[in-house]
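I'll show a sample.
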Amino acid sequence: MKIDSELEKIFEDFLEEYFYRFSVDATKLGLHRYDYKLSNLRKSDLDDWKNELNDFRGKIQTFKNIKFPVKNTDFFLFEKKIIEELDAVSGESEYFTSPLPYVSNIFDGLICPAFGSYASLGVRGKSFTERLNDVSNTRKAVEENLKLSNNLGKKAAKDQLDILKLLISEFTGYLLTKSDIEKKDDIKQAKNTFLENLDAIAACIDNLYLDLDTEHGFLKSFRNMYPEMVNALKGAEVSIKESLLKTADLIVKKAREIKISAPFLETLKNVLDEKILISQEQLDSVFQSIKDAGKEMFGETDLKIDFRKLVLSEENTQKLSRISHPFEILACGVFDRNLYVSFTSFAPVSIPFLVSNLVRYVYPGKAYLTEVKKNKEKQYRKYFGNKMIEEGWKVYAVQGMKDSLKRIFGNGFELSSLYGEYLYLLKALIQCKLLNHEIATPEIERIVSEDQVLLDKDMFLKEFILDEGQSLLGFLGFNTILDLKRQFVRKYRERDFNLNLLSNSSLPIRTMRQVL
């Protein structure tokens, strides 16, 4: 039908424009035709994109009240995406009040080709070098757009730049040792230019006007994306607080069960500090145990882990351990041809922490959601996502696997898992308080400093800033999934419910309920 094809053409034009402009997003989805550049974030680019978005919005309005074969849901997803993008480039968005979108553009844009598994090293090395050279455009975007930030945003951005500097220096050194990599002089020059640009960005961040009243970027985006949830946040805050107190009590009990004579924080620290340098064989063994434990509840997976070990000097290993996790997990995108998950080890890791992260980000968490979406969801909808369900699914995966993994990995895993749950709930509680206008940004540090369970408060603050509301969405999404599960308990076996949910994970909650 003509109407169908006209709307499809508008959508295709939108996607082409979007992925060219925001090429790092394209890379993460598994679309690699723009891997030679970072996202276009300069002021003129954002202004042009805003004009393009208004044009697209005008074009689709003519279809709004017409009955046509394309599902109304698909039209809604398209329109919602346009509105979200308009919010993202408004004058009050993070592009103008936080350095983090620019640092993330560089970080994700370089880490994907450096440590991803979607192509050969030669192909990824070429993209990596081209993106190193394009960091200058992100530096110019920072200089043009960014005038102020809050203190926590500045600190988190500077830490990310330090991690980048260390990892990228190590990876370029690795590239230069490979005989199949061409134009090694170009790599050396690109690295030097990259480091100069990174220093310039760090200096620019240092000189930003410090605005204590600047809201975290997730607050505005949350209110715009989930207006129906804002009124329910008071009730959510009570529920989060109850869960947090319950989890704190369970941490104390489990720690005393492990060693009754020691203070619970000492036992917790000892469990988390028991680390090893993970090998390919150990990682494979751990992941196989997780897959075996999860297949009855979640179904079988074809995901494979591509293991790499980045060998750092002792000084750099210690430096990285202070500001970063000991490994990087990169899940495949929904349009990637293979189902490889890249796992790059930087430093020793505790097995309980490793297990929790494999569950959360690989199987049956984030990467498994992508696998089911890739195989089951309609082509059109693969371009979209329901952030609340995606974040809630990671929490649901961890909770669903907890008992079976406790039997495999013991009390240390259970205690580590409870601590991870406490961290996410505390982030969600603070985010809820910010949205409810109970606290302002400067009070976050006070809440963290007074907490009696946190072991590393500086790391928590950094993770909180980088979290961007994911923990609150995780809590809300997790409870939404539980509500759906209760509603359809007589219709589906547990595994069938999980697979049906993942097969429709891009849909709005109301539509998902109807489809289920």
Q: What stands out?
A: Strands lie at 148-149, 209-210, 304-309, 327-330, 340-345. The longest helix spans residues 387-435. The CA atoms of residues 81 and 384 lie 8 Å apart. The two ends are 29 Å apart (CA to CA).
